[in-house]
Amino acid sequence: MAKPKVYVTRLIPDEGMKLLYEKCDVTVNPYDRVATREELLENVKGKDALLSLLTDTIDAEVFEANPNLKVVANYAVGYNNINLKDAEKYGIPVTNTPGVLTETTADFAWTLLMATARRIVEADKFNRSGQFKGWGPLLLLGQDVHHKTIGIIGFGRIGQAVAQRARGFDMNVLYYDMNKMPDVAAKYDAQYRELDDLIRESDFITLHVDLNESTRHLISDREFGMMKENAYLINTSRGPVVDEKALVRALKEGRIAGAGLDVYEDEPLMAPGLAECENAVLAPHTASATRETRGAMARIAAENVLAALEGKRPPNIVNPEVLDK
Ligand code: GLV
Ligand code: GLV
């Protein structure tokens, strides 16, 4: 019997590729860049499965090019790049890679938080450019992290893993989520706040929500206006959750102390002026980028492809309605 055909839109780690090569006829984008729209539409034709990345837009046009896909396995926990309404129309299951990047992303949110508060990127540049002339009482003063108030917006797996870390720094932990979760919150000694109250009270605000219509520009001019002047904003969720132009204004005018960002509104572009803000630490969407986690994500994405091709329910389906009807 012919092997099922899979299109992988960009090379992922071996942990996933090996599983696919064993059971499938695999086509991989040969270039180390995002597949172009034309390449995507051309290569998806005649395939049984698509393994996509968060940088691929998967919508009706893609499903139209191949309405017979048995699965779209996204190599990410977030799946805002996939139009689920269109997937449902074509009855195509979509999967993600949850769980494995929870702790890794929380570590990275923490990395950005520490880096901004203690000005580590500025300090490194200072040293390398030969400006270090000896210890100074006023040199590169930052702000304490321990015993401060952290406000976690979105108290899912990643938000909770951040709360866990905050406890080790004796922080006062606040959270906001669409759902109040008293039992979970008690585990981390976290207190619920309405969104505006959390924004007003926090020294560090960290975002862990999905991107959807209710979270787009959740943080904009109004919210920056309510933040403490010495507060920091950390974003490892999705760029459009923050109004990036408003953020640049807030950083430039010193309305907030700083920001640590892993994601941008119009990736890979940054809002004009952001790159000049010394009080921002800017990472290139690498929160989940550890060998262990990217390997585990590859394995999970491949397992979802294989399950769907074997006619089984993919373990990480995000739109189960398509199978249940
Ligand atoms: C990364 O941003 C992901 O959603 O996996
Ligand atoms: C990630 O795993 C999340 O949804 O919090």
Question: What does this 3D model show about the protein?
Answer:
It contains 13 helices and 12 strands. With 325 residues, the chain is α/β, with parallel strands linked by helices. It has 2 domains: 5-98 and 291-324, Rossmann fold (3-Layer(aba) Sandwich), CATH 3.40.50; 102-282, NAD(P)-binding Rossmann-like Domain (Rossmann fold). It has a 7-stranded parallel β-sheet, with helices on both faces. One glyoxylic acid binds at residues 54, 76-78, 101, 288.
Q: Can you give the helix content as a percent range?
A: 25-40%
Could you tell me how far the N terminus lies from the C terminus, measured between alpha carbons in angstroms?
A: 29 Å
- Apparent shape: globular
> What is the number of helical segments per DSSP (H or I, 4+ residues)?
13
- Runs in which pLDDT lies below 50 for 5 or more consecutive residues are none
Protein structure class? alpha/beta
* Assigned CATH class of the largest domain: Alpha Beta
Stated plainly, the CATH topology of the largest domain is called Rossmann fold
- Looking at the overall shape, the CATH architecture of the largest domain is 3-Layer(aba) Sandwich
Portion in beta strands: 5-15%
Bound molecules: glyoxylic acid
